[in-house]
Amino acid sequence: MEKASKKNGLSFNFAAFFFSLFWLGYRKMYKPIIFILLGFLGIDILLYFLGYEYSMDLRADPIDYAIQIGVSVLLGLYGNALYEKRVQQQVKLIRHMKPNQIDRETLYKENGGTSWLGIIFSAVLIFLVYGIPSYFLPIHINSIDTIKYSHFEDSPEITLKNYLIIFLPLVVGNTQTKIKIPIM
């Protein structure tokens, strides 16, 4: 089993699976965090331009949720190999930089190991790269959710009758439909 996992790079890391981006930060692997977050952001921008309608009924959007699960599974399966590759690159780089063994040991300790600050750094990156643009990027919300989750305080000049006249054709899908709304 161990030979097979070394041969194809597969072994399962539960910490990487459950804590994905925070695990990467804890292991000081910041480039993969940035690439993953930019991937999330790129997909959200692409979905926006394709006119994808987000559902407000769910805690997380199904597409974002599927991507999160995919990232978690991939990090669970390949996290150890990714970390091993990073360590080997760091060791190789330090060996070329410092001929003195004592200097190398110091750099190994600085560049290797774990970092609780890396977890905080991951959280900040998640907020900066994904949270802020997601807040400012407009999203397409389907018409039913628009009515369901909006408040009349948002548009005090629009009466309920006018609100239904504006949004009901969007919900029904047929602008030719005439609906009589009784005046009270």
For the structure shown, list the relevant keywords:
DUF2628 domain-containing protein, 184 residues, 8 helices, single chain, mainly alpha, DUF2628, 2 strands
Word description of this protein:
The chain has two domains: 2-141, no CATH class; 142-184, no CATH class. It contains eight helices and two strands. It has helices at residues 2-8, 14-26, 30-50, 62-97, 101-111, 116-136, 143-149, 160-172, and strands at residues 53-54, 140-141. Strands 1-2 form a two-stranded parallel ribbon. The mean pLDDT is 78.
Structural class: mainly alpha
* Helical proportion, percent range: over 70%
Q: How many structural domains does the protein architecture include? A: 2
Major beta-sheet overview: 2 strands, parallel
Strand order of the largest sheet: 1-2
Strand tally, please? 2
**SSE succession:** HHHEHHHEHH
Low-confidence stretches: none
Shape summary = elongated
Rounded mean pLDDT score: 78
Distance between the termini: 76 Å
Rg is 25 Å
Beta content comes to: under 5%
The DSSP helix count reads 8
